Amino acid sequence: MTTIRLDAGHLVERLEELADLLVDTVDGGASVGFLAPLDRAEAVAWWRGRADGVAAGQLAVWAAHDGGRVVGTVGLAFPDKANSRHRAELVKLMVHRDARGKGLGRTLLTTAEKAAAAAGCTLLHLDTETDSPAEHLYRTAGWTRAGVIPDYAADPTGVLRPTTLYYKHITTG
Question: By CB atoms within 10 Å of each CB, which of 2, 54, 87, 93 scores lowest?
């Protein structure tokens, strides 16, 4: 399995595979901003819409490949305001259901943390559905729970669920 950072061109080249991963993630019940069933064309369009942010340096995306297909992603969203350039938001950590339980989520998380540190970030933050499997990953990776917001977002079935905010201080390298 290999993990690479996607530039805008590579992201566009991998749109179909990235869309497959997003659809699988939503169909698997993960709350990543979409309702199920997620239309494949909508997933392709969503990923296509990320290309400009990648090209502008506002978004960094890594894709994990296994046997020639994308089985995981993680992103970092960088703020554009001068007073917040020390931080980034961890976004869209997704692992295909077929690839779960093999440490890929942890690998992608570590990849993003190291890249953020190399970019000069000292603080990362994220939100995740409360009581989701992702919470265990973040807690065991040293992230700190900041609090819970009730009824923050609908899960893939449309039910409003709370979200938990996490942060992590990192050392720049």
Answer: 2
Could you identify the residue written with the tokens 């805008």? 8
pLDDT in tens, 52-80: 999 999 999 999 999 889 999 999 999 99
Query: Do 3 and 108 contact (CB within 8 A), yes or no?
Result: yes
Helix axes 15-27, 40-56, angle to 10 degrees: 120
Assigned token pair, 96: 């295909």
Quote the CA–CA distance of 159 and 104 in Å, as a whole number: 28
Structure tokens, 128: 């995740």
Tokens of 41: 């064309």
pTM score of the predicted model: 0.96
The answer to whether 32 touches 47, Cβ cutoff 8 Å, is no
